[in-house]
Design a protein that fits this description.
Order of helices and strands: HHHH
Mean pLDDT: 87
Strand content: under 5%
Helix content: over 70%
Radius of gyration: 16 Å
Low-confidence stretches: none
Number of domains: 1
Structural class: mainly alpha
Largest sheet: none
Length: 87
C-alpha cells in the first residue's frame, strides 16, 4: 500500500464527512494519521468547526445567531490567520 501524502490525507478527511470511505482509503488514512501530527491536527480542527457549525445552526433555529459585523470580521480574520499555519 502506497503511503498517502498530506494532501491526499486532508482530502480524505474532508471527504469522510460526505461519504463512507472504502477499506483501502480508511486503512491508508489511519496509517497516515498515526504518523502525521499535522494531519491529526487538521482532523481535530475540522471536527471542531463541524461541531461549531452545528451549534450555530441550533442557535439560529432558536433565534440567537445574529452576529454583529465586527464579530463576523473577527471570526473571518481568525480563520484566515489559522489557515496560514496549515500545511
Amino acid at each position: 500500500m502506497k503511503m498517502l501524502t498530506c494532501k491526499d490525507a486532508s482530502h480524505l478527511i474532508s471527504e469522510r464527512q460526505e461519504r463512507p470511505l472504502g477499506l483501502r482509503e480508511r486503512l491508508g488514512l489511519r496509517l497516515h494519521l498515526w504518523l502525521c501530527d499535522g494531519c491529526r491536527n487538521f482532523e481535530r480542527q475540522l471536527a471542531l468547526m463541524r461541531q461549531a457549525l452545528r451549534n450555530l445552526g441550533r442557535a439560529a433555529d432558536a433565534g440567537g445567531a445574529d452576529l454583529t459585523p465586527e464579530a463576523r470580521e473577527r471570526i473571518r480574520k481568525t480563520l484566515a490567520e489559522r489557515g496560514k499555519h496549515e500545511h
